[in-house]
Amino acid sequence: MNILLLGGGGREHAFAWKIVNSQNCSQLFVAPGNAGTAAIAKNIPISPIDFPALAEFILNNNIEMLVVGPEEPLVKGIVDFFQNHPKLGSLPVIGPSEIGARLEGSKDFSKIFMQRHGIPTAAYETFTKEEIEKGLDYLKKQSLPIVLKADGLAAGKGVLICHSHEEAELNLKEMLLESKFGQASSKVVVEQFLDGIELSIFVATDGKSYKILPEAKDYKRIGEKDTGLNTGGMGAVSPVPFADEEFLAKVEDLIVKPTIKGLEEEGIFYTGFLFIGLMNIAGEPYVIEYNVRMGDPETEAVLPRIKSDFVNLLYAVGTRNLSDYHMEIHEFTSTTVVMVAGGYPGAYEKGHEIIGLDKANKGNKSIIFHAGTQLSDSGKVLTNGGRVMAVTGIGPNLDLALQNAYQTVSEICWEDLYFRKDIGQDILNLKIKSN
Ligand code: AMP
Ligand code: GLY
User: Fold this and answer.
1) Which ligand number lies closest to the CA of residue 291?
2) Which range has the worst mean pLDDT, 100-104, 167-171, 240-244?
3) For the chain, what is the mean pLDDT?
């Protein structure tokens, strides 16, 4: 099968690596890709949101499946575009329709969806500019901390956790009246704070049936011991020791099943991945948010654990035959350490040469995924983003997986390199589930 994959981060390098390792892939193209995908597939310089240019490429290159990595093309309706295309209506596209993508694209939409289907989540109210007075009154009655969320996509920055009523009032005013997050904060969800341990669940669905992928824990803050600014993710671990069988069974019954059933009942077309951000509060799961794609860097930890054929999984999703697919998972632990450019998530430099890639990663204990990288004209690999590399270590337990990841990390360098040295440390001494 010829496949086109959209995106250019670590998540997409991990997708590309799984896809080219399947015997069911003839040729893989990645738009736009990065230096890592260039080494295993063919990068093409088309933007993932230039739908007409993608359609032309698909027609000219006999592409038989389109896999969408990031949320932006989904929220902009790429699935609907191809469904309505005169020649490409039956192309399997991995991702939800525009309305399905609203589960991520609008916090208000996702909260109403959860409410309609009795899915456990934080109590909330939504306010628009016209309702600012009502919103300020509502804030007064809430206990601290108070969570404010811009309704729309805000590049991961739209959630504010306010520790005083004054801070909450100021932020609500800035979001609604001064467009703090642009159009994304024209509506604001005010939410109860959930106090627990966070983890991420990933579901592949064809809109009727589903398969649950390995769970992961993400490390979001830039600083060690979870301090400093939020980032796209500085590391990940899979499996998650505190997600035992009992907890995962609750997640499936109380969250996954009603979500998939809700999508089907409402006629929302969804053939893709659903990433459920969860809080474990005293053993009970609550949804923090839905994302309509895989997580990054969680994907780099989760995909190596999938043992069954990945292209078959994607195709079963895209052709709505997922109930026939048998998912097999490797027992090992994988852990991802993200290497970033100094200054990230604030301003950072690009264009530094990355040294050591050719010598690193000998053996099968770690995998190097590129995120923000680019090949120079002379064939050097240069930094080209905030998150630059995601190194996944594999081992029979978390300790060994971490050792393998950090060993490879220590063999790669560039000017201004930074990474967290404490990925997995908080859960290292927790009992690993069932073994
Ligand atoms: P989101 O953009 O919805 O993923 O939120 C970013 C982060 O904010 C989440 O990963 C959580 O760590 C935190 N967060 C969001 N909503 C809540 C909540 N209701 N209670 C506690 N933490 C939250
Ligand atoms: N790692 C969190 C995300 O992909 O949104």
Assistant:
1) 2
2) 240-244
3) 96
Please confirm whether the linkage preceding 239 is cis (ω < 30° from 0): yes
Most ligand 1 atoms within 8 A of CB, residue of 288, 289, 292, 298 to mutate: 288
* Domain boundaries, given as residue ranges, for the chain: 2-84, 123-192, 197-434
d(CA 278, CA 255): 10
Domain covering 197-434: architecture: 2-Layer Sandwich (3.30)
Q: How far is the CA of 377 from the centre of ligand 2 (A)?
A: 32
Q: Which ligand is nearest to the CA of 192?
A: 1
Report whether pLDDT(155) > 90: no
Ligand number with the minimum distance to the CA of 232: 2
In the numeric block, which tokens belong to residue 63? 């592409």
Residue 298 Cβ inside 6 Å of ligand 2? The answer reads: yes
Confidence category of residue 431, pLDDT binned at 50, 70, 90 = low
- For residue 162 and ligand 1, the question of a CB distance below 6 A is answered with no
User: pLDDT for 285-329, tens place per residue?
Assistant: 999 999 999 999 999 999 999 999 999 999 999 999 999 999 999
CATH topology for the 2-84 domain: Rossmann fold (3.40.50)
pLDDT of amino acid 361 = 72
123-192: what fold? Dna Ligase; domain 1 (3.30.1490)
Distance CA 213, CA 21 (A): 18
- The verdict on the CB of residue 57 being under 6 Å from ligand 1 is no
* pTM score, whole prediction: 0.95
- For ligand 1, the distance from its centroid to the CA atom of residue 330, given in whole angstroms, is 30
Whether 92 is in the pocket of ligand 2, judged by its Cβ within 6 Å, is no
Identical fold for domains 123-192 and 197-434, yes or no, is no
- Strand locations in 45-196, DSSP E? 65-68, 93-96, 124-128, 146-150, 159-162, 187-192
Short-list 272, 250, 415, 399, CA closest to 335: 399
